[in-house]
Amino acid sequence: MAAVKDTAAAGLSDDQVLAYLKSHPDFLATHPELLETMELQHATGSAVSLIERQVEVLRGRSQRLEDRMTKLLENARDNERRASNVHRLARTLIRAPTLAAAILGLQQCMREDFGIDEAWVGVSPGLLKRSDIEGLQRLEPEGAVGRQFDDFLRTKLIECGPLTAVRAKLLFPKAAEPPQSAAVVPLERDKNLGMLVLASRDPERFQPRQGKVFLEMTAELVAAAVRAKLVS
């Protein structure tokens, strides 16, 4: 750059030139001829004018802002869709006339709205007497399911991750394709109502460090529906 070379010849350092330009932001506006004569080295090795370089920088900045805005809009649409789906799930569970209808509605909403292939609910044996509803079982601590999930029944902490073949067959014996990952969520942790298992054929669908808000909301809705149908 000619201006920089001249200042260097005059004994000015780069920092001094930079400080001067920062304190005089209208310098180039009052000397527009410099914008056309000053050259910057492009990454390709060719020289471009300062004004061309500024346009290039502004275009890049504009593209980054546009990409960020697009991402924000996509996230907003995703959140709106999730909220709508959760609302539909709540409405389905509330309107279900029976416990069997509530479990069926849960399974349908999970598949159609959330892309979750299987749903299973286990209820404390002291509360659930019947055993003829598919996807709903008495959760006996010493039973086959209870022994498989003894750590969960002891801690009552949400578990997300791979689902073993033994657990998949035990919970979803009629599944056309065994689920590969699952989320295990307590129902009314303090009152020990039972547990909810959501499972997917996608081994990456449920991850150990994923967010738990959706799972907690779903468990609350399911627990409320099950509790209401048990006492109705």
Description:
This protein is of the alpha+beta class and 232 residues long. It has a domain at 98-231: GAF domain (Beta-Lactamase, 2-Layer Sandwich), CATH 3.30.450. The chain is built from ten helices and seven strands. It has helices spanning 2-9, 14-23, 27-30, 33-37, 50-95, 99-114, 144-148, 150-155, 165-171, 213-231, and strands at residues 39-41, 47-49, 118-123, 136-138, 159-162, 181-187, 194-200. The strands form two sheets. The protein has a five-stranded mixed beta sheet, covered by helices on one side. Strands 1-2 form a two-stranded antiparallel sheet. Strand 6 (181-187) and strand 7 (194-200) form a beta hairpin. The longest helix is centred in the N-terminal third of the chain and has 46 residues, at 50-95. The protein is elongated. The chain starts with a helix and ends with a helix. Residues 1-5 have low confidence and may be disordered.
Write a concise keyword list for the protein shown above.
Beta-Lactamase, disordered N terminus, two-stranded antiparallel ribbon, 7 strands, 10 helices, alpha+beta, 232 residues
